[in-house]
């Protein structure tokens, strides 16, 4: 693993301490993109629907304060499910379960998928308790499979995840309707019988073609 200079390391340490605590479990995780590691994970994209309208209604500063508080509460909930928030992207909250050395052990795949589904369910409940709900709503997509993870350019450290699993989670979130949580087929296989699900369906997702998915019922 390539070491950062003291300057670079101080930047890394300040980015997000909870993120870099993961190095204790996976010392190879935070490497350059050319040294990318593969993990079997469950990835979730949760989108805040109508956030633009909320900004217009309560003003940018008030909205920024609210979203900050909301995402801080999301981070606190994520810790209860061994989940790692990869990033926020505007009004999206993106997290992953399974970024550790043992992620490729098949016995953990079902557990990781279940935690991802449970966490999204908890986060959706947090949104439903918001004073701005239901005008501020949510939708989410969850996918399980191989994920590449690492830092792009250690001179300007930026941790991220890549791969078809990540794309599938993103596409499912986009395809979901308000209050829907959509799971890909791999995630469905892991959690069926444990989480109430609706009948599987097929749809064509951009860049992925025909894709089977299922929607979660409230837990």
UniProtKB/TrEMBL annotation:
GO-annotated molecular function: lyase activity
SUPFAM superfamilies documented for this protein: Nucleotide cyclase
Entry EC no(s): 4.6.1.-
Residue ranges annotated for the Guanylate cyclase domain, each copy included: 42-173
Organism domain of life: Bacteria
Enzyme class per UniProt: lyase
Pfam families registered for this protein in UniProt: Guanylate_cyc
Keywords: Lyase
SMART domains linked: CYCc
InterPro entries, per the entry: A/G_cyclase, Nucleotide_cyclase
CDD domains, per the entry: CHD (cd07302)
Designated name of the protein: Adenylate/guanylate cyclase domain-containing protein
Annotated source species: Agaribacter flavus
């Amino acid at each position: 693993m390539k070491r950062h200079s003291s300057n670079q390391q101080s930047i890394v340490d300040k980015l997000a301490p909870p993120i870099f605590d993961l190095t204790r479990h996976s010392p190879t995780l935070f490497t350059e993109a050319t040294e990318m590691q593969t993990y079997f994970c469950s990835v979730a994209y949760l989108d805040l629907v109508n956030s633009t309208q909320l900004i217009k209604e309560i003003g940018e500063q008030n909205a920024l304060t609210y979203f900050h508080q909301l995402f801080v509460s999301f981070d606190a909930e994520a810790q209860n499910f061994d989940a790692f928030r990869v990033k926020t992207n505007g009004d999206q909250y993106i997290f992953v379960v399974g970024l550790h050395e043992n992620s490729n052990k098949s016995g953990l795949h079902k557990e990781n998928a279940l935690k991802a589904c449970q966490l999204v369910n908890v986060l959706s409940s947090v949104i439903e308790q918001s004073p701005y709900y239901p005008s501020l709503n949510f939708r989410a997509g969850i996918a399980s499979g191989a994920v590449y993870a690492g830092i792009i350019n250690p001179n300007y450290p930026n941790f991220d995840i890549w791969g078809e699993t990540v794309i599938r989670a993103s596409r499912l979130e986009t395809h979901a309707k308000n209050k829907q949580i959509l799971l890909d087929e791999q995630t469905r296989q892991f959690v069926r019988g444990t989480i109430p699900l609706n009948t599987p369906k097929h749809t064509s997702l951009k860049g992925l073609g025909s894709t089977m998915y299922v929607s979660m019922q409230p837990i």
